[in-house]
């Protein structure tokens, strides 16, 4: 029997779940306009452990969202996960944020494209098959009317940038599932358990989240 604590803080959704053998048994989350991770995360962890009627010593591993996403949100989540792993001497599992987001979609055909807002018309995106197999690696890209134009099959877009992207992504096969806005720790459960069974863990001391910082940097203006 393996209990895993899942922590997802890459977006505005502060989300925590407890999973037993890959099945979510309890999830607590809140998505607010302002990031509340610093105030909510440790409270959620304490509450979810108590309400699951287990102790922290029962945890086999901690899983944390590795990004891409908010620098501050990821830092808070990873710091909490590392602290628990050190204290309990258990492994740390890193989970791709976009895979978690894509896992919220259930379709039988086409592609799933999770996208997280960066700035202006920029997004972090990845492409998955309907069976959640990664088909294109994570990219930081600028969305235009030509984006994904080579696809004629149904494309299901999820994430927090539907409002800005649907104004330019207008092909008939482009489907925006606007109700699926943020990744959730609920969908991390199966992913983290699969990784745990394969001993696919990361070094607690050296692990860093996937910030995509180079993409977010701006060059200083040239002096005249």
Structural summary, described in words:
With 224 residues, the protein is an alpha/beta fold. It contains six helices and ten strands. It has helices at 37-51, 71-88, 97-102, 162-165, 188-197, 213-216, and strands at 3-8, 13-20, 23-31, 59-65, 92-95, 111-119, 122-129, 134-142, 155-159, 174-176. A hairpin with a 2-residue loop joins strand 2 (13-20) and strand 3. Helix 1 (37-51) packs parallel to helix 2 (71-88). The radius of gyration is 18 Å and the shape is globular. The termini are far apart.
Instruction: Write down the overall geometry.
Output: globular
Distance between the termini: 66 Å
Kindly state the mean pLDDT as a whole number?
92
Number of strands: 10
Structural class: alpha/beta
Quick rundown:
By secondary structure, the chain is α/β, with parallel strands linked by helices. Helices cover 25% and strands 30% of the residues. It has helices spanning 37-51, 71-88, 97-102, 162-165, 188-197, 213-216; strands spanning 3-8, 13-20, 23-31, 59-65, 92-95, 111-119, 122-129, 134-142, 155-159, 174-176.
Please outline the helices and strands.
Elements: E1 3-8, E2 13-20, E3 23-31, H1 37-51, E4 59-65, H2 71-88, E5 92-95, H3 97-102, E6 111-119, E7 122-129, E8 134-142, E9 155-159, H4 162-165, E10 174-176, H5 188-197, H6 213-216
Overview features:
single chain, 224 residues, alpha/beta, five-stranded mixed β-sheet, globular
